[in-house]
Design goal:
By secondary structure, this protein is α+β, with helices and mostly antiparallel strands. The chain folds into two domains: 46-55 and 79-104 and 162-250, no CATH class; 105-158, no CATH class. It contains five helices and six strands; from the N terminus they run H-H-E-H-E-E-E-E-E-H-H. A six-stranded mixed sheet has the order 5-1-2-3-4-6. Strand 2 and strand 3 (182-192) form a beta hairpin. The protein is extended. It starts with a helix and ends with a helix. The mean pLDDT is 76.
Length: 253
């Protein structure tokens, strides 16, 4: 009776663990997409996304400007004609991403250390000739402690990396900071042959860095956050299985 109850409890526990693993790994979602074309996500307001927080940065005190309503030249105006560049929340600016990063690093270390130390009590109020020989027979008081150590370290490291990303992304101004800088966010999804490519960008830019054609280079973005990845059949084949990732995470060897 007890063994039957134990088997039932073990079966229920195994089912619960399996369900937790499946739900945590996102397998049900992957299974539900079998035979269906890859779907892009819906366009949403960045300000309404869970976890969104407006950016706060150290800002100078705003300048007090007395604008003349009848003057042809208004403060802050850069031209008599309308400026086509992004300037307020909701405007769109094109970000040019051209990352060509290469690195070739090599490091070699060769270290060795040797130490030796000996201690004794050749003279200690006469005890070295009477007391110590009786307590420790056969021990030379002048050579009570002797230590030696030796260590050798050899290390070699080498890094070779080459990355190239060339893209353009339209980002939206989601916030204007008190000093006039813009907080931008952009999200782009492209599906090609059932493979989805996902590009995300966020950061802070200066209005004066926006060129006349309403574009800005990615290296002008402060606190830039750029991610480029994807998902689909090809990405799944190139990704280790969930079981392998689990064992790699818990096995120390």
């Amino acid at each position: 009776m007890k063994s039957s109850h134990a088997r039932k409890t073990l079966r229920v526990t195994s089912c619960l663990v399996a369900a937790m693993l499946l739900s945590g790994c996102g397998i049900p979602q992957q299974i539900s997409q079998i035979g269906k074309p890859m779907q892009v996500s819906q366009i949403t307001d960045p300000l309404s996304r869970p976890g969104y927080r407006p950016i706060t940065m150290p800002m100078p005190k705003p300048d007090i400007i007395n604008a003349g309503p009848d003057s042809l030249w208004q403060p802050g105006r850069q031209t008599f004609f309308k400026d086509q560049r992004a300037s307020k929340v909701g405007d769109i600016v094109t970000v040019t991403i051209a990352i060509n990063d290469t690195a070739d690093l090599q490091n070699e270390t060769d270290r060795s250390k040797t130490g030796s130390e000996s201690d004794g009590i050749p003279n200690f109020f006469g005890a070295e000739s009477k007391i110590l020989p009786n307590m420790f027979k056969g021990v030379d008081p002048s050579k009570l402690v002797g230590m030696s150590s030796s260590s050798t370290t050899n290390g070699t490291g080498k890094i070779q990396r080459s990355e190239s990303v060339n893209l353009k992304l339209a980002a939206t101004i989601v916030q204007v900071l008190p000093n006039g800088n813009f907080v931008i966010e952009g999200h782009q999804q492209v599906v090609v042959n059932d493979e989805l490519r996902d590009l995300r960008l966020a950061g802070i830019i200066r209005p004066q860095d926006i060129l006349n054609d309403n574009t800005i280079s990615y290296d002008k973005i402060a606190e830039a956050r750029i991610s480029y990845g994807g998902r689909g059949m090809l990405s799944n084949l190139q990704t280790p299985s969930y079981g392998q990732q689990f064992f790699d995470a818990i096995f120390p060897f």
